[in-house]
Amino acid sequence: MFQLYKQLSQKGILGINKRNANYTLKYNARNKYPIVDNKLKTKQLAIEAGIPVPELYAVIEIERQIQDFDDMIKDLPSFVIKPARGSGGNGIVVISNHVRDMYQKASGDFITSDEIKYHISNILSGLYSLGGQTDNAIIEYRIQPDLIFEPISYLGVPDIRIIVFFGIPVMSMVRLPTRMSDGKANLHQGAIGAGIDIATGITLSAVWKDTIITNHPDTGYPVSDIRIPFWEKLLNLSSRCYEMTGLAYQGVDIVLDKDKGPMILELNARPGLNIQIANQAGLLTRLKLVEAHHHELESIDDKIQFAIHHFKHSTALE
Q1: What is the CATH number for 31?
Q2: What is the per-residue pLDDT across 196-239, written as a single tens digit (0 to 9) for each?
Q3: What is the dihedral of CA 44, 45, 48, 54, to 10 degrees?
Q4: How buried is residue 209: exposed, middle or buried, by Cβ count under 10 Å (0-12/13-18/19+)?
């Protein structure tokens, strides 16, 4: 990974210190952070704004509610349990099927009702939350991935990360689960990050751990030159999140459900920087361009057209 960063260091790569000082601290008001640090608040705000999100089935807030868990989900064929304040995919359990008190995870393994209840108790205690805060457990709709991802994903649900600055999409990638990541779309756990051309929605180069790759390590299929469905709608949704949260610099994570289409999964006020490696391009040049011109762009369509014109893929590193 270090060598890849070194190759990009002269090409406008954005480092963590500069991201924090010049963008997140400068443009993101601290009182806005709870909107994105709490998935339940994000979901509620998105619903009010008419932005599609996975359906919320139930929220467990206190220990005594855990005993009612089996009744809460008895009519749900599948679902996801996640901590409201979790990060990095930690604490998320995906249930694909259940019979009586046995629950089948997306991996195919079975766990008991008591094991799930113990896990929910850990969520409430803050085991997976940012800063160890007491938390809520969310039970929500399980995404059924768009079929476009079937050849290039292992078990889990791919998601599309779009970095947005003042409502202008500046860079994007799709995160593809692997066997190493245990089906999670988390780069640090071994998922693939494939850059996406902002102008066309077509995947570009891809990075897996510290290596640029062309094919998925588990399925063998090429991960480049895949056209992401609903691309213009994805750009529109990501741009609308600026007005929804008031956070100028943020990462918008979107999933594509085969039946329901694009939905916002979560937002991040401190999005990671590996997206630059996946695109083999630096963020800094793009962010400076937006800083210079964002005040000229009023509508969402203007912002998207600006992004398409200025951030279309080039074969040369930026």
Answers
A1: 3.30.470.20
A2: 999 999 999 899 988 899 999 999 999 999 999 999 999 999 99
A3: -50
A4: middle
Together in a domain, 169 and 20: yes
| 152 in the same domain as 276 | yes
**Per-residue tokens: 10:** 């002269």
316 assigned to some structural domain: no
Counting the structural domains of the chain, the total is: 2
Residue 84 near residue 36 (C-beta atoms within 8 A): no
Q: Is the pTM of this model over 0.70?
A: yes
The stretch 109-134 carries a mean pLDDT of 93
Question: Which of 140, 172, 187 corresponds to the end of one domain?
Answer: 140
Cα distance between residue 39 and residue 123, in whole Å: 13
Could you tell me if 121 and 149 lie in one domain? Answer: no
Amino acid identity of residue 36, one-letter, is: V
Give per-residue pLDDT as tens, 37-63.
Answer: 999 999 999 999 999 999 999 999 999
Torsion of CA 209, 234, 241, 314, to 10 degrees: 60
Domain hosting 181: range is 2-52+145-310
Same domain, 60 and 165: no
